[in-house]
Amino acid sequence: CLPGCFSSLFTFPPFTGSNLMQLLPKLIAATTTCLLVGLASPARGQDVPTPEEAARFRFGPIRFTPVLNITNLGVDSNVFNEADDPKSDNTAVFGPLTDYWVKLGRARLIGQTRMDYFYFREYDTQRSFGTTNRLRLEIPLAHLVPFASGEYTNTRQRTGYEIDARARRTLVGGRAGVDLLLGGRTRLRAVAGAEQNRFSSDDTFLGDTLRQRLDRDATTFGLSVRRDVTPLTTWTVEGEQQHDRFVLSPERDADALRVVTGFEFKPFALISGKAVVGYRRFDTASLVVPNYTGPVASADVAYVLRATRFTARVERDVTYSFEALEPYYLLTDLGVTVTQRLTTRWDVVGRAAGQVLDYKAVGALSAPDRTDRGRQVGGGVGYHVGEIMRLGLDTEFASRRSPITSRSYDGWRSGLSITYGMKTP
């Protein structure tokens, strides 16, 4: 159904406020076409437990699942993504992750804490520690469900597909809202949020200070309608207004309106994840920076067919760039992973992904719009020890091609991985 889905997605009429109600039926039809097969899947997916019910440890009202990950225990042939004279090194990433759920009377607390240490044997300046923490509190009442969530991330890793430097970045964000129950299966959601992105003052890339270009604050306000189609499937229509304000580069400020529709699937079901398609209107504050109005999409879904697990990722949206004369690009990111279980112990994995970075240039003072392309192809083999441990051997080839020769690169990454604590699919 993918060709029909994307055909519908990219033939919508131009978005304006006056034709919003005309666009919504097409959005709904496009998403329904793509996911109809999944919704018609056998009912056996309805009996799977939720992540909370499948938690490994329980102490009174507390449930949690700790996981230990060791990945990339091997070789990176191009540590700095260089076009000429690439540097090779032995690398490893290891650290714990914990999902937890806590019942506090009628309230429910859901959280995740992750810590990672990135190791490089020779280029020790690239070593770093990072953490990501998320928390959500919700209070189910008779007809209202107030909720609040927060996130704190502090990491020194690459940001997106554009910046090759490992730069220290801190993200602090929060959202609050309420669900209004309209009948048994329909909810109206209102939510507001704020987010702060900061880069270290010491980190530069290609001679530019990242904090000068990318430090920004964002505020959002959204409304959505959510309807439970099945116990595991929710249909949504979402509208969100976002305001981005750059701390040191106010000429980059922008306001955006995003309207999407799609489906959410509960974890551990036959189909899991979320997929939405829609439109974004991106208005810049500068008269010389072009606006964008057009289709956007976001999907991260998995489907299990007997002993085979398919995972697909789709992302199409506006992304800020560190470039002075090309302040943003339209990112199209597609990826697929297929995991085939050969026996109760062995599996094989294949992966492929590609990205298109379509830069938007500032007025007539800059070079013509440029397009960079990236791709990753890889695979591996895994051995399962019981239900909660997997040993893997993986390899991946990554490349980027750009009209700017120095921005192109090729590299291989190969190594071992160990996952302990999470039930393996």
Compact description:
By secondary structure, this protein is mostly beta strands. It is 8% helix and 60% strand.
Radius of gyration: 22 Å
Percent strand equals over 45%
Distance between the termini: 25 Å
Count up the helices: 3
Q: Give the total of beta strands.
A: 21
Order of helices and strands: HHEEEEEEEEEEHEEEEEEEEEEE
Task: Tell me the structural class.
Answer: mainly beta
Structural description of this entry:
The protein is mainly β. It is 8% helix and 60% strand. The protein contains three helices and 21 strands. It has an 18-stranded antiparallel barrel. A two-stranded antiparallel sheet has the order 9-10. Helix 1 packs antiparallel against helix 2 (20-39). The longest helix has 20 residues, at 20-39. Mean pLDDT is 87; it is low at 1-46.
